[in-house]
Inverse folding.
């Protein structure tokens, strides 16, 4: 069973930075595609960033150039470095693992709150 736990959320002023971490339990982390999603109040969940098992990255247009996703397979952890933050980045951020165990499975973390004030 794969469990994910996010950390690093908090409050920051616009223009500031935060670094989110997502630690995974269980085996096989290096074979997972990992994603960060966010959901703001009264808005749909948004895919923020992806890093594949091969290290390929992709970003939502709204964060490209400001956010960086990375992973440390030795520590079973994925990171989201958020710079030049904007008030519209305020949301609950969730990490997601996409992997195979004979069938395609997904795991989600509980989320970490990020608040950006003007």
């Amino acid at each position: 069973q794969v469990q994910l736990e996010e950390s690093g959320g908090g409050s920051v002023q616009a223009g500031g930075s935060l670094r989110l971490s997502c630690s995974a339990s269980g085996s096989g982390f290096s074979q997972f595609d990992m994603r960060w999603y966010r959901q703001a109040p009264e808005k749909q969940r948004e895919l923020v960033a992806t890093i594949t098992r091969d290290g390929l990255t992709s970003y939502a247009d709204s964060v490209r150039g400001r956010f960086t996703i990375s992973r440390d397979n030795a520590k079973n952890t994925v990171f989201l470095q958020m710079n030049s933050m904007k008030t519209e980045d305020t949301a609950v951020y969730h990490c997601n693992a996409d992997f195979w165990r004979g069938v395609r499975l997904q795991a989600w973390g509980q989320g970490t709150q990020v608040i950006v004030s003007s």
